[in-house]
Amino acid sequence: MDKTITINGDNVKLSEDKKAVILIDQTKLPNSLEYVTVQTAEELFDAIFLLKVRGAPAIGIAAAYGIYVLAGQIETDNYEDFLDKFRKQKAYISSSRPTAVNLSWALNRMEGIVLNNSDKSIFEILALLEKECLSIHEEDMAMCLAISEHGLTLIKDGDGILTHCNAGPLATSKYGTALGPLLLGKERGMEFRVFADETRPLLQGARLTSFELNQAGIDVTLICDNMAAMVMKNGWINACFVGCDRIAANGDTANKIGTSAVAILAKHYSIPFYVLGPTSTIDLNCENGDDIEIELRVPREISEKFYVQPMAPTGVKCYNPAFDVTDHSLITGIVTEKGICRPPYRESIAALFR
Ligand code: MRU
User: Fold this and answer.
1) Looking at the annotation, which residues are catalytic?
2) Is residue 135 assigned to a domain?
3) 51, 77, 213, 334: which has the fewest C-beta neighbours closer than 10 Å?
4) Does 287 reside within a domain?
């Protein structure tokens, strides 16, 4: 494994000539550090759909940079023509993955720039779009740091933390959300014992979370998803920290498949279960978790991917939802950059936007 990999802040960036988005190909980690250069709408769609860039905030940042790059390729001086072509690209990129709201959130912000500046030249609009995508990225770094500070108030030196999937710097910009308090605490001399669920079927916990924590010198133990109950029963877990892809107005939270099972177990063992994420992941248009669209992915991710030979009979039926919804009643607190929401979530979440 390449020990020289540095991931803070450079997992998603604009190329120097501003004509491409450069991404760390997360599908290649932890074995090699490879970058992909994205210049076309199809390349951006594939990078998101194939999880080369993944994690709700990182997808949003990549989409913002991407739509800026694509806008620069639109050949017209006419505003209406520009807007029409911009919207077509936006709709296409937005359809690459349905669950993480940060994707449409970031694209809507970029579209807002175009809509609010119809009196300006295309050249000026492009300059404003560049500013906006850089702001989205910078704001994410600030939000992750604030989330990390708030999250750190919930744990103490020596605690055992269980996490699911990957909500670290790779999934965001810097620090991450669920891993943020652990990375920040480590910088301040605190020690934690982290248990990382491998996160079937795409192994974000094994490949990315254990990699990021290992690199930061944090004590991390990889477990299979079905071992969470055992480590909780053993008394090794003081809190669960997970990320989120979309939070409904009532606190129901979509996150990587398997998260709700962790929350149910945590409740059984009286372990606090915290969701950590920026307010950009809250979708007030979703009344509750039933309104959240869950991405279904191809069977071969379960039956064949990562195995030398297929691990299931050819053609066997597979059900492969990428996310599940954790009921708000199982969530002890939702940690945002603006503070920690506690039940009742409908009130505490609404208060964040007042
Ligand atoms: O399918 P993925 O890898 O994009 O799923 C990622 C997660 O579920 C993360 O927990 C979530 O996006 C939060 S990342 C800060």
Assistant:
1) 245
2) yes
3) 77
4) yes
